[in-house]
Amino acid sequence: MSTFANHSTNESSGHNWRCQFKEDFKYILLPVSYTLVFVIGLGLNVTAMYVILFRTKRWNPSTVYMFNLTVCDTLYILTLPFLIYYYADENDWPFSDSFCKLIRFLFYANLYGSILFLCCISLHRFLGVCYPMRSLSWVSARRARLVSVTVWACVLMCQAPVLYFSRTRDNGTERVCFDTSSPELFHDFLVYSSVVSVLMFAFPFMVVMVCYGLMVRKLLEPSWGAGGSQSRGAGGLAAHRSKQKSVKMIIIVLAVFMLCFLPFHLTRSLYYSLRYLEQMDPSQVSCELLKASSLAYKVTRPLASANSCVDPILYFMAGQGFRSNLTNRSRTSPRKPGSVTVALSTQL
């Protein structure tokens, strides 16, 4: 909820904003988009959860990370009906202040939990492709569980301040549930938000890009996973399928970052910066520019939520089924020199 959303919000906050404008479009955009995310995301994540819990006999590190990613997404999706009602009722929060804090906390916990678990999946696959022999002693399901616990601890610790910043405020007969902070706490929230964006988005995004750059370079090597004359044999077939799976994972994860996470963080940073400048020196920022940045930020919020729909696709398209199939092939087919790398990276 923007502090620029309506005149009554500005008055109740005790701040005299120079730029005041309505954002009635979000009362249609957000309920509709959140409804789609709820229906599609809940179906996909429940299906993924069922497959992981009841159809997966042996968990490997990727399964552990995907399970935690699915839990993260499901917790957030279950909060969407309350936000749908809130925005459909034009920012009239009928629930308690504590529940407002919980809803906002779960949004950011899902956002940054998804980013960190996708980073873990990418690092794991990077080791399997680029260092298949060495990483046999580095990765295991037990270590993946320890990493997952560490990720959850970091997310909960870093997002705990959201429980302080998020709060409700009565505006006449309505109650607003701020999605960032109340106006008097905005400066503190800006510092906190900037630090979290760097540590939990910019840095993991850089790690993912570096890993995928090295993976692509490795996959493009003619000698990767195949050895000369057997390119048409079992080793060559396994290498081709392993490359396909790696390429699919790269495309899906990059799509999540580029379509869901990057636009949200860019527009949010721009909007917060302009809003801060408008408070410090109104002459530096025009109302039209501030309005445009606020519009862009509101439009990208549903994109950030849509990661809950895209994440399960990573499991179904580049996950357990392909891995089991390739592992079985590697065990039953004759071992050729180039197939060893493929078998190891497949099992990883």
TrEMBL record:
This is P2Y purinoceptor 2. GO terms for biological process: adaptive immune response; blood vessel diameter maintenance; phospholipase C-activating G protein-coupled receptor signaling pathway; positive regulation of mucus secretion. Its main location: membrane. Belongs to the G-protein coupled receptor 1 family. Residues 327-348 are annotated as: Disordered. It is found in: Cell membrane. It is a multi-pass membrane protein. The keyword Cell membrane applies. Keywords: Adaptive immunity, Cell membrane, Disulfide bond, G-protein coupled receptor, Immunity, Membrane, Receptor, Transducer, Transmembrane, Transmembrane helix. One of its GO terms (molecular function) is G protein-coupled purinergic nucleotide receptor activity. Residues 44-315 form the G-protein coupled receptors family 1 profile domain. The chain crosses the membrane at residues 32-53, 65-87, 107-126, 146-165, 189-214, 249-266. GO terms for cellular component: plasma membrane. InterPro entries: GPCR_Rhodpsn, GPCR_Rhodpsn_7TM, P2Y2_rcpt.
